[in-house]
Amino acid sequence: MIKMASVIREGKETRSLTHEDQKCVGCGICADICPTSSIKLGPILPIARGLLKMDKININKESCCLCGLCASSCPFDALELDVEGVNIKTRPEYPKWTHDAQIKEEDCIYCGRCEKACPADAIFLNRILPKTADLVRGETEVDAEKCIKCGMCEEICPAEAIDMARNDINSSNPEVASVPEIDESKCIYCGICKRICPTDAIKVVCTSCMEREDIVEPEIKGDIILDNDQCINCGWCQEICPVDAPVVTKPFEGEIIFKEDFTCKGESCHSCADVCPCNAISIVEGKSVVNPQFCTLCGACAKACPQKGIILKRNKMNLENIRSKSWSKRLKGLMEENS
Fold this sequence. Notes:
By secondary structure, the chain is an alpha+beta fold. 16% of the residues lie in helices and 25% in strands. It is built from ten helices and 20 strands. It has helices spanning 29-33, 44-48, 69-73, 113-117, 152-156, 192-196, 236-240, 271-275, 300-304, 325-332; strands at residues 4-9, 15-19, 39-41, 57-59, 79-83, 86-87, 96-97, 100-103, 123-128, 138-142, 162-163, 181-182, 202-206, 221-226, 246-249, 252-258, 281-284, 287-290, 310-317, 319-320. Strands 1-2-5-6 form a four-stranded antiparallel sheet. Strands 3-4 form a two-stranded antiparallel sheet. It has a two-stranded antiparallel sheet with strand order 7-20. Strand 5 (79-83) and strand 6 form a beta hairpin. It is elongated and about 90 Å long. 32% of the residues are buried. The model has no long low-confidence stretch (mean pLDDT 92).
């Protein structure tokens, strides 16, 4: 991931503020708390819709004081402040986020649901299934003299274990195809090919039931990797997992509501759904619906709503070790109702 230096200043100590737009979700938290109003949120909606190619935030290099409040408060690690080449998030005097996500691999069954659902593409599954040939036993053979090369067996095989090479038919080579070849590593000896063959050219004998004591128990192996650098702690993996292997702590706790006098335009707008980094918003019966299970309360939807009809109610911020009173005061502003 490319880091772009936004502000670099040398003096008594060298400070460097960088912004990684690929991590940025356009929530505007940095702009909300910047003490010098040096950060402005860009046109998030057209950016999210792919109509504009530009960074989601803009930093005024002249007015930025490089205090690091934006970097410390960004829940998605899109901003980083280095002091003398050291990231402030590694220094004990700066605040620390306690939001987290992990997958207990000892509980994972490698089903892949989390990988498919993750809106940040932060989960990678390497699943190794046993070979079919180790789990089934039997014999299959094709009588070349009876076979008329019709190809029905190849088309209907559920395991795609049959392959038939077609020929360029001509007067000197009237054979339309070759005799079907059966891949024993794929064949499950179901017998469908035998039943459909119009000339009884296929013989199938399944011995799996008779030899089941000798057949190994299926064992699924693999690796499940959660890239915390990409993870946005939305909770999709936790909610969709059938065995509770993922554990997610979100950056904020609270709720998101719509104003009482707000009339959502639904399908004709869907701005909130387009900018939501968590896929937590969908259009149901013509109106936007937020699923709190997947919402991180980042506020991107509230910023994008053209009618300003969305209200954030954050009652807890999982950011600890805030030692500065001025920082504490500004961070508490994130806990106020925002719309």
